[in-house]
Design a protein that fits this description.
The structure holds two protein chains of two kinds.
Chain A (H helix, E strand, L loop, with lengths): L2 H21 L1 E9 L10 E4 L4 E4 L5 E7 L2 E8 L6 E7 L4 E3 L2 E3 L25 E4 L1 H6 L8 H5 L5 E2 L9 E2 L7 E5 L2 E2 L4 E2 L4 E2 L6 E7 L13 E7 L8 E6 L3 E10 L2 E10 L2 H8 L8 E14 L4 E19 L2 E19 L4 E14 L2 E4 L2 E23 L2 E20 L2 E21 L5 E12 L4 E15 L2 E12 L1 E6 L2 E9 L7 E12 L5 E18 L15 E17 L4 E15 L25 E10 L4 E10 L3 E2 L4 E5 L10 E5 L6 E2 L3 E13 L5 E9 L7 E7 L6 E6 L4 E9 L1
Parallel strand pairs in A: 1-7, 1-8, 12-17
Antiparallel strand pairs in A: 1-4, 2-3, 2-5, 5-6, 9-16, 10-11, 12-13, 14-15, 16-17, 18-19, 18-48, 19-20, 20-21, 21-22, 22-23, 23-24, 23-25, 24-26, 25-26, 26-27, 27-28, 28-29, 29-30, 30-31, 31-34, 32-33, 34-35, 35-36, 36-37, 37-38, 38-39, 39-44, 40-43, 41-42, 44-45, 45-48, 46-47
Chain B lengths: L1 H17 L11 E8 L7 E5 L1 E2 L6 H4 L5 E7 L6 E11 L2 E4 L10 E8 L4 E8 L13 E3 L7 E4 L10 E8 L9 H9 L11 E3 L3 E2 L4 E2 L5 E4 L9 E10 L1 H10 L24 E17 L4
Classes of the chains: A mainly beta, B mainly beta.
C-alpha cells in the first residue's frame, strides 16, 4: 500500500465515523450522590427502551454513544440509592451532557427495581467485589472500624490471624495484592504493626477489590488489586463528624467552596491514659505508643470538562518500649502519599484521566541492648505518572488505553554498634502500557480483551500480559463469566505474619527474575429470587519464579543480591460461593470458599534421606480448605440496627514434629543441650477449626439537638472461642510440652459518633 | 450451562481429593555429632537415634553403642581417603579415637558410621576452615560501656567458595550475681521461669559474615566487640570462631525451628544436616581465644 492509498483509506474511514456521528447522538455525564455531590463509581445507567447502557468509571463518568435520535427513558441505579428515571428527548446531532444526582434510599425496606440487563453487570464483573463504606462502619470491628478487616469477610479472602489485617486472597500472600489509595501505591497500609489498616473509614468513598482475573488496566501484582478512593467532599453542604472510640478517635470535615469541594479527616490513637494506668502495675508497658493519620482531598472543577483534585495521606505509628534496664526498643513507621489528578473530557467519546502520584514508606526501628545500638533506616520512594484514555467509538466497543511509568527507590541502611552493617539502594524505573477493548458483539455477549506490557529497569525485564474475559448474559437471571490473564510481579515483601512494623520491599534484579503466573476464572452470577444473588466462581492460578527472602538467612552482609532469596513456585485453586440478600430490612450474605494453595521452595520440605533433595509442595499456614462467612444486617427499628458476623474456617496448617534429638558438644553454642525437631511433612497437620461470632448494635439519635449521633456497642467473639494461632513446643520440660497460643478472647467495644 | 458448572465443580473436588497430604508417623533415624577444630586433636563422636517427640529424652536412652565409627582424612582434592582414624565406644553412644591426630586446616574429612545390627551406613564430609590468629594487642582491662571498645584484629583466613563466617562467644570466668551487667541482671531477675545463671555464662553472637567487619589492607579483619556480648563483669574469655558449611547450614536452619524468621509461626522445617543416611552434624571450625577484664562503670 502506497502512502497515498493509505491516506485515502484513512480519510474514508474517518468520513465513515463522521457520517455515523452526524446520524447518531450520545449521552454522557457524571453520576453523583444528590446530597453530597460525591461521584459514584460503577453506578449503572441505561436507556430502557433500547436496553443500552453502561456503568460509571472510577471518576463517576458514563457514556452511551451512537443512539438514534428519539425519546427514551434514562434510568440510573446504585445500591443504597433510589432508582432514577427520567424521560429525555435526543435531537439529531445532539450530544447530551446529562449529569445524574441519585437520592440516597433512606426508607427502610425500599427495594431497587432492576429493569435493565446493563444494570449491576459492572458491579458483578468476574472476580470483583465492592465493600460499601456503610458496611465497613457497621461491621463489628476489633476496637476500630477497618477496611481490611471488612474485606476479610469476603469469600476468597482470608486473614492470617485475629492480629493481622493482611489480605490473603485466593491463595496469594499479602504482597500479591496491589493496594492503591486514589491510584497511588501504598506499601505498608497498616497501623498497630498490622492489627488494622491505615484507611480511615471516614475519609473513604469506595473500596473496590479485584480478587483475580483482573483486566489489563491494572498490573504489577500476581494476584489481586485493591483500589481505595478517598471522598471528594460534600459539594453542597458543610458537614463533619467526631467519633470517640476505645482505641482511636476520629474527626472529619468536608464541604463545598466556590469551585469545588474539600475533605479532611484525621484519626489518632487515644491509648495514652490506658498505658499510663497499666504502667503503674506492670513493667512491660511501652512508655510511648500512638498512631495517627490524616487524609485530605481538594477538588477544583475548572470547567464542565476539566476537573482537578489533589489528595494526600500521611500516617505513622510510633512506639518506645524500654523492656529492661539499659534496653529499649523504638519504632517509627508509616506512609505518605500524594496524588494530583486531572480529568478531561475531550469529547462525548473520549474521556481521559491523568494522575501524578508520590508514595513514601518509611520504617525506622531502633534497638539498644546493653550499650549496643542497632538502627535501621528503610525508605521507599515511588513517584509515577499515569494516564488513561477511554474511547467510545460505537455501541459495540469501548477502548481503554493507558500508561503508567515511575521511579521506585529503596534505601536501606542497617547500623550495628554505630557502624554500617548492611546497606543497599535500589533505584528502578518501571513503565507499563495497556490497551483493552470491551466488545459487545450482541446483547448477550461482552468480551474484554487486552494486553499489558511491562518494563522494569533492574534486570531490563520486559513482560507481556494478555488478558481476556467474557460474559454471556443467558437471561435476566443468569450471567456466565470466564477470564484468563497473565500477571507479573517485580516486588516481594519481607514481613512477619505477626508483626508488620519491620516490613521491607525488595525487587527483582539481574539473576532474580520477576514472578509470573496465570489465572483462570469461570463463574456464574445468578438472581435466583428477586433481590437475592447467588454467585459462584472457580479459579485456578499458578505462581512461578516466586522470590522471597531466604528464611534461613542469618546475615546478609557481603552476599550477592541474588543470594538473599529463595526461588519457588506455587499454585492455588478453589471455588467461592456467595448467596446474598442485597436489599431490605434484613440483608447480608453467606459466603463459602473451598480452596487449596501450595508452595514449593528448593531444599525446603525435603524428605529425610532424599539424596536428590527434591522439594515437595506443602500448604502455607494460611491455606484454609473450607471457609464460611455470614454477615447479617437487620434494621431493628428506625433507630436501632444490628449487624452480626460469623466466621468459620478449617484450622490453619502447621507442622507437627514427629521426632527429636539433641546436640551437645558444639564449641560455639551458648547452651549445653541444643534440641532439634524432626519433621516428616511440613504443615501437614491442622490446628482446631476456627470460628468466631461478632455482633454490633448501633443506635441513631441526636446530640443535644446539634446534630445526628450514633452509638455503637460491639462484642467481638461473643462466645469467647479461644481459637488457636499456633502451638509452641517447650523444650524446658521433658517430655516436651505444647502450649497453644490463642487468639482474641471476648472483647467489648463502644464508640460514639456525632455528625454535624 | 448448569451441567457444565457441575462438571467443573466435580473435577475440582476430584483434583482436591487427589492432593492428599497427610502427616507421616514417626520414623527413627540415626544421629551423629562431632566437630573438628583446626590444629586440635580429633574430637569425640556421638552416635544415637532420634526419639519420638513426645517421649522422655535423654541421650543415654537413645545412644547407639554397636556402631563402627571412623573419621577419614581425605586427600587434597577431597576425593580419596588418605588416612583412616578408627574410633571405639567409650561410654554409651560416645566414641573416642584410638589414635592421636591433629586436625589439619583447609583439608577435608569424612565421618563414616556403620551400624551392623541394622546395616545402616552414615557418612558426612567437612572442609576444615583455615586457621587464624588474633594479631592485635588486646587491652588487659576495659571499662564497661566506655567509649574505648574492645577491638580485635584477626589474621587473614579463607574458606572455599565464600566469605568467612564467624561466631563470637564470650565466656564469663567470674559468673556471679554481683557481676551481672545491668541489662542481663534485669533480664535475670525479671525472668519468671527461674533462669539459671549458667545460661548467661556463654553468650553467642550467632552467625556473622566477615563482610560486617573492617577488612584491612593485609586482609586481616578488625572486629569491634559489642557491649551486648558482655553479661558479666570480671574476667572474660572471647572466642572467635570460623565455621564450615555444615555448621553454618545446621545453625541457621535449626535456630529458626521455633520461630524468629519470616516463616509463619508453627511452620517448622528440618535442620539442614548434610549427613547421608542419618541426621545430626559433622562440622568443623577454627578458633582463637583471648582474655580481658571488664570493669564496672564508675560514676
Amino acid at each position: 500500500m502506497t502512502f497515498k492509498s493509505f491516506l485515502i483509506s484513512g480519510i474514508l474511514i474517518a468520513s465513515t465515523f463522521a457520517v455515523q456521528a452526524r446520524q447518531t447522538v450520545s449521552i454522557t455525564g457524571y453520576v453523583r450522590d444528590a446530597n453530597t455531590g460525591e461521584t459514584l463509581i460503577s453506578a449503572n445507567v441505561a436507556l430502557l427502551e433500547i436496553n443500552r447502557g453502561g456503568a460509571t468509571n472510577a471518576q463517576g463518568y458514563y457514556g452511551i454513544p451512537n443512539i438514534e435520535p428519539g425519546t427514551y427513558t434514562i434510568a440510573c441505579s446504585y445500591i443504597g440509592y433510589k432508582l432514577f428515571t427520567r424521560e429525555i428527548t435526543l435531537e439529531a446531532g445532539e450530544n447530551l451532557r446529562f449529569d445524574i444526582n441519585l437520592e440516597p434510599d433512606v426508607f427502610v425496606g425500599e427495594e431497587i427495581v432492576v429493569e435493565s440487563e446493563a444494570e449491576l453487570q459492572e458491579l458483578k464483573s468476574i472476580g470483583t467485589a465492592q465493600v460499601k463504606t456503610e458496611l465497613i462502619k457497621a461491621l463489628p470491628a476489633i476496637f476500630e472500624a477497618d477496611v481490611f478487616r471488612s474485606i476479610q469477610y469476603l469469600p476468597g479472602v482470608k486473614s492470617a490471624s485475629d492480629f493481622s489485617s493482611g489480605l490473603y486472597i485466593r491463595g496469594g500472600s499479602p504482597d500479591q495484592t496491589l493496594i492503591m489509595l486514589d491510584q497511588t501505591t501504598v506499601y505498608n497500609p497498616s497501623h498497630f504493626f498490622g492489627f488494622f489498616s491505615t484507611f480511615n473509614p471516614d475519609a473513604i468513598k469506595d473500596v473496590r477489590l479485584f480478587k483475580g482475573g483482573y483486566p489489563a488496566e491494572y498490573g504489577g501484582r500476581l494476584g489481586s488489586v485493591l483500589s481505595v478512593y478517598n471522598k471528594d467532599g460534600n459539594r453542597n453542604n458543610y458537614q463533619g463528624s467526631v467519633t470517640l472510640g476505645m482505641l482511636a478517635s476520629r474527626v472529619a470535615i468536608e464541604g463545598p467552596y466556590k469551585k469545588g469541594s474539600f475533605m479532611l479527616a484525621a484519626r489518632r490513637s487515644t491509648l495514652e491514659p490506658l498505658l499510663s494506668a497499666l504502667s503503674q502495675s506492670n513493667d512491660n508497658i511501652p512508655s510511648l505508643f500512638y498512631f495517627y493519620d490524616f487524609n485530605g482531598k481538594i477538588n477544583y472543577d475548572a470547567s464542565l470538562n476539566d476537573k482537578f483534585h489533589l489528595a494526600f495521606y500521611s500516617g505513622a505509628d510510633k512506639v518506645r518500649f524500654p523492656f529492661a534496664d539499659d534496653a529499649e526498643f523504638t519504632l517509627n513507621y508509616g506512609n505518605q502519599t500524594v496524588s494530583g489528578n486531572w480529568t478531561h473530557i475531550f469529547s462525548d467519546k473520549v474521556f481521559s484521566n491523568f494522575v501524578v502520584t508520590g508514595s513514601r514508606y518509611f520504617n525506622f526501628p531502633e534497638f539498644e541492648f546493653g550499650g549496643t545500638p542497632f538502627k535501621r533506616d528503610n525508605n521507599i520512594y515511588d513517584f509515577s505518572l499515569k494516564s488513561d484514555l477511554e474511547y467510545l467509538p460505537n455501541e459495540k466497543h469501548q477502548i481503554a488505553t493507558g500508561i503508567w511509568a515511575g521511579v521506585f527507590t529503596l534505601r536501606l541502611l542497617d547500623r550495628f554498634d554505630n557502624q554500617d552493617s548492611f546497606s543497599t539502594r535500589i533505584h528502578a524505573r518501571y513503565a507499563s502500557f495497556y490497551v483493552q477493548d470491551t466488545w459487545r458483539p450482541t446483547e448477550k455477549w461482552k468480551v474484554i480483551g487486552g494486553v499489558r506490557a511491562n518494563y522494569f529497569s533492574d534486570g531490563d525485564y520486559v513482560r507481556l500480559e494478555p488478558r481476556l474475559s467474557g460474559e454471556y448474559f443467558a437471561n435476566d437471571r443468569i450471567t456466565m463469566q470466564a477470564a484468563y490473564g497473565r500477571y507479573n510481579q517485580f516486588f516481594t515483601l519481607i514481613t512477619n505474619e505477626a508483626f508488620s512494623g519491620f516490613d521491607l520491599w525488595l525487587t527483582s534484579d539481574e539473576g532474580i527474575r520477576p514472578s509470573y503466573g496465570d489465572q483462570f476464572v469461570i463463574g456464574a452470577k445468578t438472581v435466583p429470587f428477586k433481590d437475592y444473588g447467588l454467585d459462584i466462581e472457580l479459579y485456578y492460578r499458578s505462581m512461578n519464579d516466586l522470590f522471597e527472602l531466604d528464611p534461613f538467612l542469618p546475615d546478609a552482609a557481603g552476599l550477592l543480591y541474588e543470594d538473599l532469596f529463595r526461588i519457588g513456585e506455587g499454585y492455588a485453586y478453589g471455588t467461592e460461593i456467595m448467596f446474598e440478600k442485597r436489599v431490605g430490612r434484613l440483608n447480608g450474605y453467606i459466603g463459602y470458599t473451598f480452596g487449596y494453595t501450595w508452595r514449593k521452595w528448593p531444599t525446603f520440605n525435603v524428605g529425610i534421606g532424599d539424596e536428590d533433595q527434591t522439594a515437595r509442595f506443602y500448604p502455607p499456614k494460611y491455606d484454609r480448605r473450607n471457609d464460611v462467612k455470614i454477615i447479617l444486617n437487620y434494621d431493628l427499628s428506625r433507630k436501632w440496627k444490628f449487624t452480626g458476623a460469623w466466621v468459620y474456617a478449617t484450622g490453619q496448617a502447621y507442622t507437627e514434629a514427629t521426632g527429636r534429638y539433641a546436640v551437645y558438644d558444639s564449641p560455639y553454642n551458648a547452651i549445653d543441650q541444643n534440641n532439634v525437631l524432626v519433621v516428616e511433612n511440613v504443615n501437614a497437620s491442622r490446628l482446631p477449626h476456627y470460628h468466631r461470632a461478632d455482633v454490633s448494635f448501633s443506635r441513631l439519635g441526636t446530640f443535644f439537638g446539634l446534630g445526628e449521633s450514633e452509638l455503637q456497642l460491639q462484642v467481638i467473639n461473643v462466645y469467647s472461642r479461644r481459637n488457636v494461632w499456633f502451638t509452641q513446643i517447650n523444650f524446658d520440660e521433658n517430655p516436651v510440652s505444647r502450649t497453644d497460643v490463642t487468639l482474641l478472647p471476648l472483647i467489648p467495644a463502644i464508640s460514639y459518633t456525632v455528625k454535624f | 450451562m448448569k451441567a457444565n458448572i457441575l462438571t467443573i465443580l466435580s473435577l475440582l473436588i476430584l483434583l482436591a481429593a487427589c492432593e492428599v497430604y497427610n502427616q507421616d508417623t514417626y520414623e527413627e533415624y540415626y544421629v551423629v555429632e562431632s566437630y573438628l577444630v583446626a590444629n586440635r586433636q580429633l574430637p569425640q563422636v556421638r552416635v544415637s537415634t532420634t526419639a519420638p517427640v513426645d517421649d522422655f529424652y535423654a541421650f543415654s536412652r537413645f545412644a547407639v553403642t554397636d556402631a563402627e565409627v571412623q573419621i577419614r582424612l581425605l586427600n587434597e582434592n577431597g576425593t580419596d581417603i588418605d588416612e583412616v582414624f578408627v574410633y571405639a565406644n567409650d561410654t554409651a553412644g560416645i566414641f573416642q579415637p584410638l589414635a592421636t591426630h591433629k586436625v589439619l586446616p583447609a583439608r577435608s574429612y569424612q565421618l563414616y558410621v556403620n551400624v551392623p545390627s541394622s546395616a545402616a551406613e552414615i557418612t558426612a564430609t567437612t572442609i576444615v576452615p583455615d586457621t587464624f590468629k588474633v594479631v592485635s594487642t588486646v587491652l588487659d582491662t576495659l571499662v564497661y560501656q566506655s567509649t574505648e571498645q574492645l577491638e580485635i584484629t584477626v589474621s587473614e583466613s579463607t574458606y572455599p567458595g565464600r566469605q568467612n563466617i564467624f561466631i563470637f562467644n564470650t565466656l564469663a570466668l567470674e559468673p556471679t550475681l554481683e557481676n551481672l551487667t545491668p541489662v542481663y541482671a534485669d533480664l535475670f531477675f525479671d525472668d519468671d521461669e527461674d533462669m539459671d545463671l549458667s545460661e548467661l555464662t556463654n553468650t553467642s553472637s550467632g552467625l556473622l559474615n566477615a563482610a560486617n567487619f573492617t577488612i584491612n589492607q593485609d586482609q586481616s579483619i578488625t572486629i569491634r566487640y559489642p557491649w551486648i556480648a558482655v553479661a558479666f563483669y570480671g574476667d572474660n574469655k572471647l572466642v572467635a570462631t570460623t565455621v564450615d558449611d555444615n555448621v553454618y547450614d545446621f545453625v541457621r536452619s535449626e535456630s529458626v525451628q521455633l520461630g524468629g524468621s519470616t516463616l509463619s509461626p508453627g511452620e517448622i522445617q528440618n535442620a539442614i544436616t548434610h549427613v547421608k543416611g542419618g541426621l545430626g552434624i559433622f562440622g568443623s571450625l577454627a578458633s582463637d581465644t583471648i582474655q580481658t577484664h571488664i570493669k564496672r562503670m564508675e560514676f
